[in-house]
C-alpha cells in the first residue's frame, strides 16, 4: 500500500490532493449514453466501487467527492466502508449538497463528510449578476452547513464570475472546471484562471480530463501547472484507470 500523496488543508481538515470522483458510480458519462448504460450495469453492486476505492487508496488517494440524494448513494457508502475496513485507512470526504442538506445528515456522517459544497446548479442560480453578489438564500445555506458541523464550500460552472464574489461569503473551498481545452470553463478561460489565481479560497479542479477528451498524462500535467489549484477530482471507471490516472497525477505534481 502506497503512502498518502500530497494533501491540502481546508481550515482544520485535511484532504488528499487527488480526489476520487463518483460520477461513473452513479451511471453518468458525458461521452455517450452507451457509456452511461455500461456504467449503470458495472456499478449495480458495491464491490466494483470498492475495488476502485482500493486501487485509489494504493495510489495515495484519501478523499472522495460524492453527493446526496442519489439512489446509489448507499452503494457508494457501503464501498467506502468496505475498503476502509480492508485497508485500515480512513478517508476524509467532500459532499456536494442541495438546499435540502439537513435531510441528509445521517448520510453525511456515514461517509465522513468534512466539507459540504453547494451544488453548482444552485450556486450559479443564486448568482445575482446585476449586483455582482449571491442571493441571501446562498448565505443561509452556508450558515446551515456551518451550523451542522461541516465546512461550507461551493461548486460552480461559472467560476470566472462567482469565484471573485465568493470572497465575501463563508466559503472555504471552491470546486470548478479547469482543464487544458477550457471545457465548461465559463464565461471564458482567461476569467476562470485569473479568478483561481487570485482567490483566497482552496480550489479543486474538476473535469480535468474534460470527460475523456484529454489524455490523463496531458490533463494531469496541465492541472499541476495551474497556479492556485490545490486539488483535483476525477471520476474513475476501473481499478486500472485509478492506478494510471492517479499515478500520473503524482508524477505531474512531483509527489
Structure description:
- It contains eleven helices and twelve strands.
- The protein has 255 residues and is α/β, with parallel strands linked by helices.
- The protein has one domain (7-253): TIM Barrel.
- β4, α4 (73-87) and β5 (93-97) form a beta-alpha-beta unit.
- 46% of the residues are buried.
- The model has no long low-confidence stretch (mean pLDDT 95).
Keyword list:
255 residues; 11 helices; 20% strand; alpha/beta; two-stranded antiparallel ribbon; TIM Barrel; 12 strands
Which helices and strands appear, and what pairs or packs with what?
Elements: E1 7-10, E2 13-16, E3 18-21, H1 23-26, H2 33-42, H3 46-58, E4 63-67, H4 73-87, E5 93-97, H5 105-110, E6 113-118, H6 120-126, E7 127-128, E8 133-134, H7 136-147, E9 151-155, H8 159-165, E10 173-177, H9 189-198, E11 202-206, H10 216-225, E12 231-235, H11 239-253
Parallel strand pairs: 3-4, 3-12, 4-5, 5-6, 6-9, 9-10, 10-11, 11-12
Antiparallel strand pairs: 1-2, 7-8
Helix pairs in contact: 3-4, 3-11, 8-9, 10-11
